[in-house]
Amino acid sequence: MTWKRVGYIVGLWVLGGLALLIIADRFVLPAVVQASPVLSVPNLAGKDVEFAKETLRALELQVMEPRLQYSEKIPKGRVLSQMPYAGAQVKSGRRIYLTVSRGIETVRMPSVRGLSLRDARLALMRVGLQVESVEFEFNDSVENHRIIAQSVDHDADVPAGSSVTLVISQGSNGVHTPDLGSLTLDEAKAILAQSGLTLGKITYKPTDAFDENSILFQVPEPDSLVQPNTAVHITVASPK
């Protein structure tokens, strides 16, 4: 066999292969593609993500790893959106992208007790919370202008953006009892009235060591911190 004849045969094989490729590209592959079933993408919005995956796999559609997103309306683990959209006509094996709810975004409530209002606002803002309202109360143990209490407990998980009510100390509302020792009964009444206190039980004790009608003892003791209108009981000297 001559080289010319060999070249002729090889050329025929090459031309035959090209012809087969052209036929496959123009006729066979389109026929195969057209033969693949056309599917309608189901509406998965609001469905449980596992149910959605099973539904898509049953239709021989390819489920991609879901994207997670916070939502205030759709419960955690349910489908927020899908791509392609519901009702789209696709071929078997098409990739389906799901966005799934992470539920409501929550943050950890910090403790702001003992802070000033300004510092409390900053601490809340750092975690995405805010002050809704402020109330004021007298408090004997917490100094003026400091936070006494907060409407949400420390370390509680709350929705991001929530509002908190704070209670702020106005300082002590107490009254320090005056020292009534050696005063007369009339003087004691006047001082108690000026201090916002009242005269309580009067007990007389006969004695020659003190002037008549002078105060010997008092309850509560001098400089005690008491509430306004507290009654102060006294013991008054009387002659034997």
Describe this structure in words.
- There is one protein chain.
- The protein contains 4 helices and 16 strands.
- By secondary structure, it is an alpha/beta fold.
- The strands form 6 sheets. Strands 2, 3, 4 and 6 form a 4-stranded mixed β-sheet that branches.
- The chain is rod-shaped.
Give the SSE layout:
Blueprint: H1 3-35, E1 38-40, H2 49-58, E2 62-63, E3 67-69, E4 79-83, E5 89-91, E6 95-101, E7 106-108, H3 117-126, E8 130-137, E9 147-150, E10 157-159, E11 163-169, E12 175-176, H4 185-194, E13 198-206, E14 215-219, E15 225-226, E16 231-238
What keyword list fits this structure?
16 strands, 4 helices, alpha/beta, four-stranded mixed sheet, single chain, 240 residues, three-stranded mixed sheet
Briefly say what this structure is.
By secondary structure, the chain is an alpha/beta fold.
The chain-level structural class is alpha/beta
The biggest beta sheet is recorded as:
4 strands, mixed
Radius of gyration: 44 Å
Low-confidence stretches: none
DSSP helical segment count: 4
Helix content: 25-40%
Average per-residue pLDDT, rounded, comes to 87
End-to-end C-alpha gap = 160 Å
Beta-strand percent range:
25-35%
Shape: rod-shaped
Write the element-wise H/E pattern from the N-terminal end onward. HEHEEEEEEHEEEEEHEEEE
Find the count of extended strands (DSSP E, 2+ residues): 16
